């Protein structure tokens, strides 16, 4: 294991570490969203607004299922980060081996369950009849691709846990470019419709996972396992499940609110669905810096807790919040001026109602991005500290807010209420997370003083 392949985040100033680690993460997330945007552009312009709405209507259920998978894999990486910070290579390999076995188990169970229920799920959500077949064609293939998704997320999580966020970026850029090429090939050449878009995503994810595996085998010897490392043991399984399951459940609980919200938006018709889809694509792109800062803080906190350097936690969190808040102000100004121009990427100028509604969505969301910055940075810091269970309660707060908007306010006030669902969710999540952080930090100091 060479210094070029890992990074100890318990050394150096937090600002330098956070920027060096988060910038590659940010570029990776941006490339993912570039693909999502290009995918939406290709679907909209070559297959029509109905196809865009069909794919978009699967967003919340994808967030529910794929979010659980991603959260689970990220949680599995936290004990690896802590072991690396503590310089305990034996425990590190055991955690990697045990988490790999658990990831395979969860991938099989989730894939079989979701593919069997995909059509039923869309019907339960009240997906409009004119787009439900398109939505199902897309969703079933994405669900069959869950093992490919978990392969990449698990292996990339290991690499990032060791302080290396560059290599996952390189493979993500490659897979994103491949994804776009395959998108065009499946849709324009093979005329596979929305199914082609889904196949392109699954294939490129699988290839990026394989590239991570090859890199680990060649360059990160500390992650090269023996057969004995794969043997499940309660000493390692329990911490992995204690950190992985809450992170996965947190995403899923949050997504349950999104599913309820999507169901309410579906009742407004396919035009409203298309508006939320177009606005959501842009929003998901511009919030990538918050996601990158959050993921950075999970690794930063994990390594510093493992190294016993608790005083660095607050310094790192303050730094990430400052960076995020400055960005929040800048991006609000940009979207206020240019959101209309950006929306032309997805819909033609003749779709005036779709554009108007999407602009409304972007305005209300970007107005409250500071709250989202707080959610991501504090939640991931708490998770890196080893208190992943708190993420579940934060997820409950977000779920409650979105569910109330979907069940009560959208029927009463229509589309505008849907635009305020996420800001309401961020308010409730922050109300829980801020005191939870100070409680978790106090518990760590108490534990450290008792040793």
User: Count of DSSP E strands?
Assistant: 0
Number of domains: 1
Beta-strand residue fraction = under 5%
Task: Please provide the ordered H/E string of secondary-structure elements.
Answer: HHHHHHHHHHHHHHHHH
Helix and strand content put the structural class at mainly alpha
Rg is: 21 Å
The N- to C-terminal Cα distance equals: 31 Å
- Summed over residues and divided by their number, the pLDDT gives a mean of 85
Measured as a percent range, the helix fraction is over 70%
- Taking pLDDT < 50 over at least 5 consecutive residues as the criterion, the unreliable ranges are none
Backbone shape: globular
Outline the biggest β-sheet: none
Task: Provide key terms for this protein.
17 helices, 451 residues, 84% helix, mainly alpha
Brief rundown of the structure:
The chain is mostly helical and about 450 residues long. About 85% of the residues lie in helices and about 0% in strands.
What does this structure look like?
The structure is a single chain. With 451 residues, the protein is mainly α. It has one domain (7-449). The protein contains 17 helices and no strands. The mean pLDDT is 85.
How do the strands and helices of this protein lay out in sequence?
Layout (H helix, E strand, L loop, with lengths): L13 H34 L1 H8 L2 H27 L3 H36 L7 H13 L1 H16 L4 H24 L3 H27 L14 H33 L3 H17 L1 H19 L4 H33 L8 H16 L1 H16 L4 H25 L1 H5 L1 H29 L2
């Amino acid at each position: 294991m060479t210094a070029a392949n890992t990074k100890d985040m318990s050394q150096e100033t937090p600002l330098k570490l956070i920027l060096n680690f988060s910038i590659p993460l940010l570029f990776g997330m941006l490339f993912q969203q570039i693909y999502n945007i290009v995918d939406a552009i290709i679907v909209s312009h070559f297959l029509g607004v109905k196809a865009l709405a069909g794919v978009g209507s699967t967003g919340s259920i994808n967030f529910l299922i794929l979010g659980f998978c991603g959260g689970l894999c990220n949680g599995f990486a936290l004990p690896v980060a802590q072991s690396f910070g503590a310089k305990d290579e034996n425990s590190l390999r055991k955690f990697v081996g045990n988490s790999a076995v658990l990831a395979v188990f969860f991938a099989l169970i989730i894939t079989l369950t979701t593919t069997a229920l995909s059509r039923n799920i869309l019907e339960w959500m009240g997906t409009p009849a004119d787009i439900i077949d398109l939505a199902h064609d897309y969703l079933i293939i994405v669900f069959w691709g869950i093992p490919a998704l978990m392969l990449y997320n698990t292996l990339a999580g290991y690499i990032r846990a060791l302080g290396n966020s560059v290599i996952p970026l390189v493979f993500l850029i490659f897979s994103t470019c491949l994804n776009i090429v395959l998108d065009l090939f499946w849709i324009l050449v093979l005329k596979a419709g929305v199914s082609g878009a889904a196949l392109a995503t699954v294939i490129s994810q699988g290839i990026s996972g394989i590239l991570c595996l090859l890199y680990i085998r060649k360059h990160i010897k500390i992650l090269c396992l023996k057969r004995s490392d794969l043997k499940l043991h309660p000493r390692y399984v329990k911490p992995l499940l204690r950190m992985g399951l809450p992170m996965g459940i947190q995403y899923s609980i949050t997504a349950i609110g999104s599913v309820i919200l999507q169901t309410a938006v579906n009742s407004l018709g396919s035009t409203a669905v298309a508006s939320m889809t177009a606005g959501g694509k842009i929003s998901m792109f511009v919030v990538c810096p918050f996601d990158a800062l959050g993921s950075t803080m999970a690794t930063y906190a994990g390594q510093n807790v493992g190294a016993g350097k608790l005083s660095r936690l607050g310094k790192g969190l303050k730094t990430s919040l400052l960076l995020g808040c400055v960005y929040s102000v800048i991006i609000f100004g940009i979207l206020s001026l240019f959101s209309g121009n950006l929306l032309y990427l997805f819909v033609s100028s003749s779709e005036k109602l779709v554009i108007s509604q999407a602009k409304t969505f972007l305005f209300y969301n970007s107005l409250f991005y500071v709250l989202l910055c707080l959610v991501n940075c504090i939640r991931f810091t708490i998770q890196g500290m080893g208190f992943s269970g708190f993420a579940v309660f934060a997820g409950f707060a977000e779920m409650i807010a979105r569910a109330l908007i979907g069940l009560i306010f959208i029927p009463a006030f229509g589309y505008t209420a849907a635009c305020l669902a996420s800001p309401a969710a961020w308010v409730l999540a922050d109300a829980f997370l801020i005191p939870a952080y100070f409680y978790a930090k106090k518990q760590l100091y108490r534990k450290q003083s008792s040793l």
